[in-house]
């Protein structure tokens, strides 16, 4: 085993002839971080060991010289104590490498490791990548003091002309460690490289920050032009290299506070950014005339104590790195000067770490204002944008600033694997009432008991974090809705943490005469299937309800138990493991009982073939298949085209029995659980439908 580097620091304590007296001090590095475990000696006196905060005390005489040894640090300069016997010790780290902020995408970066004091023998160097997209093929000098690398191109894109949000995973965050070895001793240092700072994708942004805008795929050949900007600004849009090679992404630095207007040349889309420093708006959102209710609820959340909790509790996670502080404070961005936490820390000569003496109460007042995750962390530091653009705060990029850092915080990365993250492609789904389940804006309005609005295509967000979660609530998991839920089909039940799910995952109406007359389509009937309702041909009973229903199966991390689950199941992917039990009985009539998923798939296929045959036999319905027209279940052509003569036949009263069968087929097919939500009910519904068609 190689020995750690031990360095000597000599500190003169007092003049000659003075009687022995206690000498106290603190051992820190050049950035103010404590050096715990440093060994402090004075002659034959018993040595002292610096505690977790770097403090030490030991008796010493007037002629005493302190000898301080610490792994991986150089010797300190001579320090003369003050009259009270205070002897601070500053040790420089033996190996250092500076971090690089805002390096750019597909940009060259050189990291140089500096040995500030020599090792006992000739040094050798080795670089290792700890985090970030792989650099093995994009870097040279892995065994030298200088690592030359090229960051990856930008992978994030938008589906329309818009501002980009960048999570740490998308912003090109890399963490690297260099190890130097010589004469049997080893020293290490770490550095971070950021292509850009993480950003929420809002229009209210910090000054001296970079924003990224995309023309989207529809605006081929378009670009963003800067129409107006504050006096003295030198902002200019510049192209950004992209991973897909398609142009359209530009960046500009909002170098002055004020308004910046960008116009996309093909579509005419306008974006008005309001830039301002983080410390220009007092944290007084809870004034009586403003948001006292939200402030009171937020104060009970973990966001409100994101930094305090780390400072006040004994932690085993080590010192805060910059990447940690970014998610425990407001405005952390060492690449910009805009009044964020890092800027105030620098101005107050305060290096905050886990062993901060005195905990949160010892933070300087100005720094305390930027501590924890407050209002501006989500809403931005600039003035509120124009009213129609304020729902942008519902986009996933707001949460992704911190919750897209796998493996510690994989929530947004998992969500991107789900259907919830898909942009709304059908314009009909942006209008009420469909927008109440297919857009974040509509869903939040519905859950708040408000009228569901029509959502403009240029602003529509998919089902994002904010649909289920809200930052200012007393609910421990920040859930927007919990407890008792009901469906429009008449089922009332205790939903627990799944209440938000069940507002949309239901059929949309009862299986009754009204449904028959409207030829209603069972939209997303998971709740009905789970509780054994919603079918014309069979009735059932609830299937093994659990306290939190959907959450208990769809959000458990399957990989904890199932080695073959992979990262694409559980958590915020919302994908449950497929059922592996046998079906309760034969469904398709072949005399065999298969695994539930296989039995249901076979039965559904047989029923669909029978339904298509029945439809094709109707006048004008050759080649017809079950389809939809809005919320109605109607026959359509093989390519989804309308069949007027066939539809006229479909709406005749004598076709109602066939509608009931097609409805029940759609109920089970659109449930999508392969029978897992309610095996006996699913098999009963499918068997009844087949009997109705004499199959």
Number of DSSP helical runs: 19
Helix/strand/pairing category: alpha+beta
CATH class of the domain at 94-277: Mainly Beta
CATH superfamily assignment of the domain at 94-277? Immunoglobulins
Global shape: elongated
Strand content: 15-25%
**CATH topology (fold) name of the domain at 94-277:** Immunoglobulin-like
Strand order of the largest sheet: 1-17-16-12
> Which residues sit in consecutive blocks of at least 5 with pLDDT less than 50?
1-18
| Beta strands, count | 28
- Residue share in helices? 10-25%
| Mean pLDDT across all amino acids | 89
Main beta-sheet strand count, sense and barrel state: 4 strands, mixed
Gyration radius from CA atoms, angstroms: 32 Å
Distance between the termini: 76 Å
Q: Architecture of the domain at 94-277, according to CATH?
A: Sandwich
List its traits:
19% strand; 20% helix; 19 helices; Immunoglobulin-like; 28 strands; alpha+beta; four-stranded mixed β-sheet; 695 residues; four-stranded antiparallel β-sheet
Descriptive notes:
The protein has 695 residues and is an alpha+beta fold. Among the domains are: 86 residues, Sandwich (Immunoglobulin-like); 184 residues, Immunoglobulins (Immunoglobulin-like), CATH 2.60.40; 112 residues, no CATH class. The chain is 20% helix and 19% strand. It contains 19 helices and 28 strands. The strands form nine sheets. A four-stranded mixed beta sheet has the order 1-17-16-12, with no helix packed on it. Strands 2-7-4-5 form a four-stranded antiparallel beta sheet, with no helix packed on it. β27 and β28 form a beta hairpin.
